[in-house]
Amino acid sequence: MSERNISVTLKVWRQKNASVPGAFEIYKVDSVSTSSSFLEMMDLLNEQLIEEDKDPIAFDHDCREGICGTCSMVIDGIPHGKKALQTTCQLHMRSFNDGDNITIEPYRSKPFPVMRDLIVDREPMDAIMQAGGFVDQRIGAAQDANALPISKEIADKSMDAASCIGCGACVAVCPNASAMLLTSAKVGQLNLLPQGKPEKDRRALNMVRAMDGAGFGNCTNIGECEAACPKGVSLDFIAKMNRDYAVASAKEFFGVVG
Amino acid sequence: MNLDAKVPEGSIEQKWTNAKFNYKLVNPANKRKYSVIVVGSGLAGAGAAATLGELGYNVKCFCYQDSPRRAHSISAQGGINAAKNYQNDGDSVHRLFYDTVKGGDFRSREANVYRLAEVSNAIIDQCVAQGVPFAREYGGMLANRSFGGAQVSRTFYARGQTGQQLLIGAYHSLSRQIGLGQVKMYNRHEMLDVVLVDGVAKGIITRNMVTGKVDRWAADAVVLATGGYSTVFFLSTNAAGCNVTAAWRAYRRGAGFANPCYTQIHPTCIPQEGEHQSKLTLMSESLRNDGRIWVPKSRETAAKIRSGEIKPSEVSEDERDYYLERKYPSFGNLAPRDISSRAAKEACDDGRGIAPTGFGVFLDFADAINRLGRDVIEERYGNLFDMYENIMGVNAYEQPMQIYPAPHYTMGGLWVDYDLQTSIPGLFAMGECNFSDHGANRLGASALMQGLADGYFVAPYVIGNYLGAEIPVGKAGKIDVNDPAFAEAENAVKEKIEKMLSIKGNSTPRSLHIELGKIMLEKCGMARDDAGLKEAIEQIKALREKFWSDLKLPGSADELNVELERAGRVADHLEFAELMCRDALDRSESCGGHFRTESQTEDGEALRDDEVFSNATVWEFKGLDQEPVKHVEKLEFDYVKPGVRSYK
Fold it and tell me: B362, B388, B407 — which closes off a domain?
């Protein structure tokens, strides 16, 4: 907890909007408290830039406690920085040393065009969810919550998948810009639960097709996504989705999709 | 201002049933002719948009985030209450109703609270059906935990991420409707005004946050589900983007604003460390199930802890003051939020705080770890301990956590009747942005309950009733955005933006927001008094002048301009803050989260004045240069008799 001040030099991607080319710029930030968060360091820099009549750096952020999934930058080549199981907003300056050089880029993936500086458009992820990331169930038509027991193991496993925050780090880090981890987390969460079983096949088929349709690449089992995931979503869910997809494809061939 | 609450006839148990029967219906084939705008995509907004879309209405939903899944409901940690009585420990709809009215310090409307308790069970059923992976026991049944202000275990949870899971559940339903084309979603759109045609809400004005384009949107009804206003304090547990703008713009157009002084200061947050800080992080109240809160008995020991001379573990048991257990033996560490927060402040004001700043108390798990083992604590709260270590760099399994109260939830909001309609016809307010259910203090795990109750189970009835009763089918969906009212609102929005950009002064929006926050925290925070509030009002006015004469903004209106967005929100906070202080000044009693130092019992508890203040104060806008007009909705208590709210 011993607090001190450090200076860091940032190399930041600047780009006015999607239609003009961008470039890196160098900024020095002094008097950064090590107890401040990475984004608070960015706040400090932005105040400095405004004072100097320069454009502040646009970046996405909201809850600043690691749950909303809004913050998205790539720090020294890794989405959310090198510390495992953390979002950018949870990264603190005590992880850096005085005099460090830090490179900050937006997510660089074809499906996520840059909107400004470090802000990218992640709406294609919503399109995948709209294709099947739900239980087709009328609001108000539910039976008693305890009428259908679900074993603790299954509920816990479903929760592991459901802890995905939809930040897109898995896509950003993947050389193929694949959204398999994100998609499989949703398919996994719902296909594990009895409530999600009736649409198990349709969900796997529709979500994978929507993913392909939105321009995301294929999975080649590299595993960068799992390492970059701030919530530790496991690659096992991709394997599980592949099985669900294979079964569903076979059933589709014979015209018996559930 | 018409403050008829339209509470239905009948006994409290029958009111919602009677209301539902008497509400007008819209024929299934006609629903598609009606359009509804929903602003916000949190539990209330996403819930309402999905439910109305599913029924067949044409819905447009707007949010400022890049996806509806990011709304701030997602940050709720601990859980959601429901009167299921799965624990067989004496819970019932009536008890949940009673606890909520009492927890709110007898300042909420009984009929609304009863409905909330009544639909609470359906919410849990709905969420489970949606695929929300709630915590379960080995037998496959749902697990529960306890929360503050209740003596039964009625809180359902999904690890420490209940808000996330419930919001994602609502996002599932919303996504389904977006995919079906029933709901059209507009991300990165900020609502900047409500449009009234002949006194009735008929649309909104938004700014596209990517292109800067200002747009007009028309609908037969407008639902605001835009959250609370804790960011008026700058430092709060709210997300950076949360703001009062939508509610404030509605107020400026004539909607009554009720009880703005009711704010909740949450007892278990990570203490502030320095000036650089941009937010305060909440540690779930559920931690108080197993953590024990204490400060040293003596100031000298506290000073030694602050300077690092001794470790907390070196303080012997008889030198510790477990002040909540001492003062409130029957509720102990689970005393309600307002009471726990004030007790922490009291201990720190007494010089016994333990954080370096002097503002902090311990939340200690040593006993629980000894009793249950580290594994159990890790299973229950692992993610919270990780979060704490991230921020503080301290392992809370080995050393007690440091916590201090922080601005969190706001009970005040737009005044609504039983049908959640504001005083502007056609304008509805749901979730945290209305004032209706929590009185002067909200109990833990009740915000999620209210957001989903409003969105899933109240919205479909009350919106249907409004459309069916007020808008003939022939006129449905026929609002013209070329109406002069839309032009006027659009121009006002554009003028404000241009004006802010043209000042070219020296103060950044963030620096002005920080200044406002300091005034509010000091003078309108956990303790308020007459002199301080009067000073605050003058300081806010001066700061508002500074804003409009010295604001410095980069960039232009027609681009993605984060500082411009921030400035617009700060401008509205600077107007709203004054109303909040006026309301706090006017309410010279103490109740719930509103503590006037002039009104306390001998042992420092909040002292209500039911003779004068058994009401909701509703403010009407009369122009910025004029004082707002005060109206009052008298609160009747037929089922829960107001008493001294004792947790001893």
Answer: B407
Rg from Cα positions in chain B? 24
**pLDDT confidence band for A2 (50 / 70 / 90):** low
The CA distance from B222 to B37, in Å, is 5
Q: How far is B448 from chain A (nearest CA, A)?
A: 16
A237 closest CA partner among A173, A170, A172: A170
Determine the structural domain holding residue B371 and report its residue range.
266-407
Is the pLDDT at A258 greater than 90, yes or no? no
* Rounded Cα distance, B446 and B442, in Å: 7
Q: Which of A116, A142, A171 is the last residue of a domain?
A: A116
CA angle, residues B241, B247, B249, in degrees to nearest 5: 105
> B161 in a domain, yes or no?
yes
Q: What is the pLDDT of residues B549-579, one digit of tens each?
A: 999 999 999 999 999 999 999 999 999 999 9
> Per-residue pLDDT for B421 more than 80?
yes
Residues A224 and A163 in one domain: yes
Among B285, B295, B292, B289, residue whose Cα is nearest residue B325: B292
Interface A–B counts its CB contacts (< 8 A) at 225
Residue A258 lies in a domain: no
H or E stretch covering B81: strand B80-81
For residue B455, the tally of other CB atoms under 10 A from its CB is 32
B341 closest CA partner among B235, B269, B445, B274 = B269
Residues of chain B with Cβ-Cβ distance to A94 below 8 Å are 393
Return left, alpha or beta for A168; rule: phi > 0 is left, psi -120 to 50 is alpha, else beta. Answer: left
Task: State the smallest CA–CA distance between residue A96 and chain B in angstroms.
Answer: 13
CATH of the domain at A99: 3.10.20.30
Structure confidence by residue, pLDDT tens digits, B65-100: 999 999 999 999 889 999 999 999 999 999 999 999
Q: Hey, which residues 231-290 in chain B have their CB within 8 Å of chain A?
A: 239-241, 273-274, 276-279, 281-282
Query: How far is Cα B103 from Cα B643, in angstroms, rounded to an integer?
Result: 11
Q: Which CATH number fits the domain that encloses residue B360?
A: 3.90.700.10
B395, closest residue in chain A (CA to CA):
A1
In degrees and rounded to multiples of 5, residue B334 shows phi and psi of -105, 30
- What phi and psi values does residue B107 have, to the nearest 5 degrees? -130, 25
In a shared domain, residues A112 and A129: no
Residue from B426, B421, B412 nearest B6 by CA: B421
What span, in angstroms and rounded, lies between the C-alpha atoms of B98 and B110? 9
Residue A61 falls inside a structural domain: yes
Q: Which two tokens stand for residue B42?
A: 């949190």
Is residue B629 a part of any domain in this protein?
no
The reply to whether B272 falls in a domain is: yes
Dump pLDDT digits (tens) for B6-41.
999 999 999 999 999 999 999 999 999 999 999 999
Taking Cα atoms as reference points, which of A49, A48, A76, A72 lies closest to residue A61?
A72
Average pLDDT over residues A96-104: 97
Residue whose C-alpha is closest to residue B240's, from A67, A61, A42: A61
**Would you say A90 and B390 are in contact if contact means Cβ atoms under 8 Å apart?**
yes
Question: Which string of DSSP letters, residue by residue, matches B402-448?
Answer: EEEEEEEEE--EE---TTSB-SSTTEEE-GGGB-SSSTTSPPTT-HH
| Residues A81 and A172 occupy one common structural domain | no
Rounded to whole angstroms, how far apart are CA atoms B194 and B2? Answer: 19
B303 and B257, same structural domain?
Answer: no
Does one domain contain both A139 and A236? yes
Interface predicted TM-score (ipTM): 0.98
User: Which of A116, A146, A180 lies at the terminal end of a domain, its last residue?
Assistant: A116
CB atoms B277 and A36 under 8 Å: yes
Among A39, A59, A139, A167, which would you mutate to test the B interface (most chain B Cβ atoms within 10 Å of its Cβ)? A139
